Amino acid sequence: MTVELHVNVDHVATVRNARGSRYPDPVHAAVYCERAGAHGITVHLREDRRHIRDRDVEVLRETVSGRLNLEMAATDEMLAIALRVKPDLVTLVPEKREERTTEGGLDVAGQLKALTAYVGKLREGGIPTSLFIDPDAAQVKASAAAGAAAIELHTGDYANAPDLATRRKELERLAAAADLSSAEHPELVVAAGHGLTERNVVDLVRLVTPLEELNIGHALVADAVISGLEEAVLRFRAAIDDGESRR
Ligand code: PXP
To answer: How far is the CA of 238 from the centre of ligand 1 (A)?
Structure first.
């Protein structure tokens, strides 16, 4: 079984928005990601639209040929957008305006009734839901009870582990949650994401074996910026030389 890679292109939009320009366009980035073999594209439409905008989700719906995963908070506004745009999957995440990025998983167990109703509305609209949760048994069980199609295990504590012992402990937590899900709720797809890098993804995939999908954004886009610089400088150099040769 191939562990699928879904690329989160939010930070392509962050760079675009920093200058109020049309580029780099997350839609353009999505084409390159899919061409390179990504199984799908993930975007987080935040309440404050700090990176991805409504237009991006709409155009991606028209252009992504793999799976389009819309991450969003469980609000009425986002429900209306999801039901209109019809992504292939919605991932519900907790969202605080002041946070820099998603901090912690959704407390599904603590809001089971409301989330079950919300997941039901998405299902009625033909959209399966993934719930972004901390790797805890109670949250896995609650996600199944809420009618989710998938869980996405929050890997932030693993990625940010300050030392080896904590890293090992966090890997064990992730493995235990994934094992519980696949043993007791085999209908749930097990995904993971947040803070994953080319380096830390290796042990995650090696040791958390029920894992089927990964959502990776920041580190992948950061690597693309750095590794693409040499080619970009060469191309700009050639353009300048071209102008000079035509003087
Ligand atoms: N999964 C979820 C639910 C997220 O909210 C994010 C960040 O938007 C990611 C995955 C990707 O995390 P990162 O950008 O750190 O790779």
So the answer is: 37
* pTM greater than 0.85 (yes/no): yes
What tens digit of pLDDT does each residue of 80-130 get?
999 999 999 999 999 875 666 667 899 999 999 999 999 999 999 999 999
Q: What is the CATH number of the domain that holds 190?
A: 3.20.20.70
Q: Is 154 a known active-site residue?
A: no
The residue among 101 and 143 whose pLDDT is bigger is 143
Q: Is 71 a catalytic residue?
A: yes
Q: Relative to the CA of 159, which ligand 1 atom is closest? A: 15
Kindly give, in sequence order, each residue whose CB lies less than 8 Å from that of residue 176, ignoring residues fewer than 6 positions away: 135, 137
Number of domains in the chain: 1
Is 111 inside a domain boundary?
A: yes
Report CA-CA distances (Å) from 39 to 3, 5, 7, 144, 216: 10, 6, 8, 24, 12
Residue 78 lies in a domain: yes
